[in-house]
Amino acid sequence: MLSPDSVTRQLNDQISLAKSFVVIAKESNNLQFAWELSAQIRNSQILLSNAATRRTPLTIRESETAIRDMALLLVQAQQLHYDSSTMIMKLKAKIQTLEEQVGSASEKSSKYGQIAAEEVPKSLYCLGVRLTTEWFKNRNLLKKLNEKMEAEAKIKDNNLHHFCVFSDNILASSVVVNSTALNSENPEMVVFHLVTDEVNYGAMKAWFALNSFQGVTVEVQKFEDFTWLNASYVPVLKQLQDSETKNYYFSGINDGGKTPIKFRNPKYLSMLNHLRFYIPEVFPALKKVVFLDDDVVVQKDLSGLFSLDLNGNVNGAVETCMETFHRYHKYLNYSHPLIRSHFDPDACGWAFGMNVFDLVQWRKSNVTGIYHYWQEKNLDRTLWKLGTLPPGLLTFYGLTEPLDSSWHVLGLGYTNVDPQLIENGAVLHFNGNSKPWLKIGIEKYKPIWDKYVDYTHPLMQQCNFH
């Protein structure tokens, strides 16, 4: 009973029991006692959270007071002599009613939230149309862009700091480039490689020709120009030709609620999402690249990422296993023998969105080939449901170097984040549905993104951005 594991287990057991007594105390209208129990539960949870953050077990000495105080409250709860059988019946009935209400509300919230997250704001659509028109109308833009590029020397110079973004969102991409440039100690050393689709290509080229970013070099490509990107080589493109896959993602037919709506979102089959697994083919001359999602804001100088030692690994990423739902078993189907035999279910997950990729090691390890293998095995969607993180966890298993957590702070698009983490973070990630350019964005985090948007730009004002 004196081992660190038993201390943690004892605290967790006390918390579970105390939560039950909180419910009973409220049902009995003993609100003062319910408050005391809740306060002690929070104290115990803080202890456990601090231990998890520092990655060392709780000691008996630091947990002794919390365990004793909670034990006294639990004894007091037992002495109140609640009518257990009556209370159990009441609680069961209440739980059943609440579960039904929560289930209904959760389903509606998920559907409406997903629809809102997939919305393209009118102002963003307007910007794309006006920029595309400008690109084809204004002959000087191409000349202006070519002057900025200074030939192809910088694009292939491995002495510079290369970043890549794959996106169809002009404004979000602009924020990533602008925030990186403004916080860079040597912006002239920074090269951004933007890859978009044919629809947004002209608009993206026009925007980065019209605007200056502290001397940062910006290259814009469209993935339709990559001749190697075809169904015979790329499993995702092959799957898009399959009639069953088309029905699953594009028919709009409900499968009786078996699959959450977010897993049936066609955006996860977008080539711009899966292009991250082909970075060495996209940039054959480069040796190291920092990959950034288009929903991030950079607030520190990132040059230090290029001197990090990845210890022979391919991917440098921040781990996300401080809580159990960020471990492998939450993303993958461990009832499948192929998953069970190859991957530790308690292995630490990590985040896409700010990744350092050693492309020399990538090519040596044939990482893209590993990705192809797992995509082919998941044709029937039995290994994982959808998205790029699950195949990423499989592809880079044993090839990922953990980075300091301050390099990449997640959660600004779906939850409350510790202000201290935000202040110290180099890259802030608005992962989740509540993107800062949408009406459903979390209000208190929008200013972090807004300060890198030039709302005085004539095109921004014409399209009613505010």
TrEMBL record:
It comes from the Eukaryota. GO terms for biological process: cell wall organization; pectin biosynthetic process. This is Hexosyltransferase. Belongs to the glycosyltransferase 8 family. Gene3D superfamilies: Spore Coat Polysaccharide Biosynthesis Protein SpsA, Chain A. GO terms for molecular function: polygalacturonate 4-alpha-galacturonosyltransferase activity. It is found in: Golgi apparatus membrane. The keyword Aminoacyl-tRNA synthetase does not apply. InterPro entries: GAUT, Glyco_trans_8, Nucleotide-diphossugar_trans. Keywords: Cell wall biogenesis/degradation, Glycosyltransferase, Golgi apparatus, Transferase. It holds the Pfam family Glyco_transf_8. It comes from Kalanchoe fedtschenkoi. Its EC number is 2.4.1.-. It is an enzyme of class 2 (transferase). One of its GO terms (cellular component) is Golgi membrane. Its main location: Golgi. The keyword Metal-binding does not apply. It is a single-pass type II membrane protein. Pathway: Glycan metabolism; pectin biosynthesis.
